[in-house]
Structure prediction request, 243 residues.
Amino acid sequence: MSFSKLNEPTATVDAKNYVMAEQNDQSALTNKMRAYLEAIYHLSDKQTPIISARLADWMQVTPPTVTNIINRMSQAGYIDRGNRGEITLTSTGFALAETIVRRHHLLECLLADVIGVPWHLVHQEALRLEHALSPELEERVEVLVGDRTTCPHGNPIPGSPTTLTQSESLTQVVVGQSFTVNRINEEAENDTDLLLFLQQNRLIPGTEFTVVNSLPTHGITLKHSGHMITLPPHITTILWGQL
Ligand SMILES: [Zn+2]
Prediction:
């Protein structure tokens, strides 16, 4: 199958590596492993080492479930374990994870921009589709979403040219400052109800707010177009933006 007649093929090296890795891999790369690779990739952005308990939190499963799959992924050569049990991706695991995340974000853009799926649902829908995407279809999706460099939640698409935009945590903003949302923490995308709340209150990339009150233990009050909202601390920590 090829879509090359539809458009100039835009070579995606990552996608090809991914297929090669899948073909070379004797132990089946299951959808569950793909989901864990994706989570470990996102957690690798943080400064703290990735331990099983943190991964269990992200995946919303029990620690023994994580141990089981982590052992299988280690045997398959996707991850390494440090002396203290910290988890890191091997180069094979990283290449696979990057491709999975890239496909996920491209699909989110397609669903939001082209198909018109509501913003708070595109993450879950992309999770369903991403494992079935062929490299040919990925190229076609890439053409359809144009020059997007981030997903609809503001998270960078791996392999896209990065336009480095300064991003500050909402928790760092002081009263009187303006704050334009540009990114929602990737982990928060697993919570559809939370995303719906964010959307209903325009807490989505591109909206400019003014900080009218900030009490670290109680939350931060924001104002946009005459509408005021007080966000509790667990929500202020997932929002990033420009001052
Ligand atoms: Zn996203």
The domain at 1-156 is CATH 1.10.10.10 (Arc Repressor Mutant, subunit A). The beta strands are 79-81, 87-89, 168-169, 178-184, 208-215, 219-224, 227-231, 239-242.
